[in-house]
Amino acid sequence: MFTLVFCLASYSFGQTVPFQDLNFEENIQSVRLFPMSQEFAAQMNSPIVELNSNIPLKLSFDDLAYDPDRYSVRIVHCRFDWTPSDLKDNEFLRDYNEFNILDYEYSINTRIPYIHYNFTLPKVTKSGNYAVVVYRGRDKSKVVLTRRFMVFQNSLQVAAKIVPPSQTENRRQVQQINVNINYKGRELFDPKNMVKVVIRQNQRWDNAKVLGNATMIRDDSKMIEYQLFDGSNAFWGGNEFRFMDLRFVRTRGVNIHKVKMEEDVVYAEGILHAKRPMTAYSQYLDVNGQYAIMNLERQNHELESEYILTTVNLNAEGVNGQPFIIGALTQWGQNPDAKMVLDKRTNTYQATLLLKQGWYDFQFGYKSAEGWDMNPIEGSYFETENEYEVLVYYSDMGSRYDELIGYANLNPNKRRL
Q1: CA–CA–CA angle 358, 360, 363 (5° rounding)
Q2: In whole angstroms, what is the distance from residue 180 CA to residue 159 CA?
Q3: 3-class SS at 337?
């Protein structure tokens, strides 16, 4: 942990470590960064806004403490690969680049006390990738969390669609994303080398794909086509996410076996999950691996919700490897608590997570050289409903940063709770 904190705190001194979405202290919980909206579902939306939009991004998190602390925020402009760009602060911000988080409230009658913080991110003047770094006081070496966000400029038209994969192998398990870019509204110099297209699935960065050379560039009609045949624009379809309904503490939610309320903590135990056999695809609603803070027993979701020590169970039958819990609730497997431990007495893999009341999506997977592999436990189907984002970056002649000049969100079969 200390090495990561040092690297992140040292970006301003020329470090080139890519930013990630990380919490560096156990007391920092329920971190969300999303476009501000009156809609409850907004907290599950991708942290991306259009340049000069009137919709700001909101950072929200809890500190499990009795008294508030002083937290400061710094914004870092990044290249398309999430390493810091060469831009100076005053080239993308109108304000001095250190902000105090002044909006905080105490939890109300909760067994585990916490302070809830909110911060509205300042507007930036350049498109591209950004990281928000939160640190204690004004000491940049005491980083408590980092989160990534994007600001795009709608300079061109991006069209994308899910099609059957070009490669016949795994045809019923894979989703291919074809992309067409119309750049009549933006002059591009050497688009073959200066344009980079990134696709990510379900707001994940660990399996995001950078597309290779375009299959066709039509200078007369200002079109770039990515209809690749090498599988580089294809994703495993996966399966619909499993879920836990922790919106209640006085009764059991869906997929919760039991709830126990003690004087100083609430315990919950999930049902016993099992490996899903490769049978016919089954459709049901999920939130694509995200989570939402929600309390159906009290009025204030953010301040009156309890933190619950939640045990997740997986039947070890047919599980041939070390399983992890994958989803936004474990920062897509980066949280140390995502690793499950075998209880030989019950032949069950278990992991205990501290979760605020709400709805949580997750899957089980193995760690592999290529990243997380959920297919052996969850299965993979072309029909699975997933969210895809297409991000188009451009490095202009003589520019010192990567602009984000196009964005498309692809969710044709959107089925959300």
Answers
A1: 170
A2: 5
A3: helix
Beta strands in 216-322 (DSSP E): 216-218, 223-226, 234-236, 242-245, 256-261, 266-273, 291-293, 307-315
**Of 22, 47, 21, which is closest to residue 34 (Cα–Cα)?**
47
pLDDT tens string 169-182: 788 899 999 999 99
With bands split at pLDDT 50, 70 and 90, how would you rate the model's confidence at 308? very high
Any bridge partners for residue 329, and if so which?
A: none
Give CA–CA dist 348/400, Å, rounded.
Answer: 53
Token duo for residue 165:
């994969």
Q: Find the distance separating the first CA and the last CA of the chain, reported in whole Å.
A: 36
Cβ pair 274, 315 in contact under 8 A? yes
> Which token pair is 46?
């991708």
**Site of tokens 């819990």:** 325
Outline where DSSP puts E strands in 263-387: 266-273, 291-293, 307-315, 323-326, 341-343, 348-356, 358-368, 371-373
Question: What would the two tokens of residue 341 be?
Answer: 């431990």
- The angle subtended at Cα 195 by Cα 191 and Cα 198, nearest 5°, is 150
Q: What is the DSSP letter of 286?
A: B
Please state, in angstroms and rounded to a whole number, the distance separating the CA atoms of residues 145 and 8.
Answer: 10
Provide DSSP, 184-208.
Answer: TTS--SSHHHHEEEEEEETT-STT-
CB 135 within 8 A of CB 5: no
How would you class 54 by CB atoms within 10 Å of its CB: exposed for 0-12, middle for 13-18, buried for 19 or more?
Answer: exposed
Closest CA to 101 of 64, 61, 45: 61
Q: Measure the CA–CA gap between 97 and 105, rounded to whole angstroms.
A: 24
69 contacts: CB under 8 Å, gap ≥ 6: 63, 115, 136, 137
Provide the 3-class DSSP secondary structure of residue 237.
coil
Q: Closest Cα partner for 199 from 412, 413, 407, 416?
A: 407
How do residues 342-377 score in pLDDT, each as one tens digit?
999 999 999 999 999 999 999 999 999 989 999 999
Q: Is the Cα torsion angle 360, 362, 367, 368 positive or negative in sign?
A: negative
Phi, psi of 27 (to 5 degrees): -80, -10
